Amino acid sequence: MTALDYARAGKMQMALHLIYEYKKGVRSLALCTVCPTCAALLKERLDRQGIAYLTQELGNRNVNIFFGERVCLDAVAVFVGKPLNKLTPEEDFMLGAMLGYDIRQQCRRFCDRKAKVRVVS
């Protein structure tokens, strides 16, 4: 196996773990960034398990796959049409909170990003 094969296998294991957490109710929304081959396999798995998902093609030949509760995906769909690094501080905060990131870190990140926006304006 090549290093790339190991990396892909690791990403798929992480995706399967996120599916497990979703099915156990630990999270309502998950995000995986994978190669197109892994994306096809992951979408097939999500379809078989009846889990809703949303994809975002990335310019570097990777794919973001958001999956989870439909209401969460509906919210993500509002801003997923642009690269994640182009989200407003509010969108970034909301996405991080929905993905279950540490809320204190999200608050710090939000304040830092808002301060940068004020300096640029």
Automatic annotation (TrEMBL):
Q: Which InterPro entries match?
A: DUF2023, PG1857-like_sf
Regions crossing the membrane: none
Q: Which residue range or ranges hold the DUF2023 domain?
A: 14-113
Question: Looking at the record's lineage, which domain of life comes first?
Answer: Bacteria
For this protein, the record's Pfam families field holds:
DUF2023
Organism the protein comes from:
Candidatus Tidjanibacter faecipullorum
Name-wise, this protein is: DUF2023 family protein
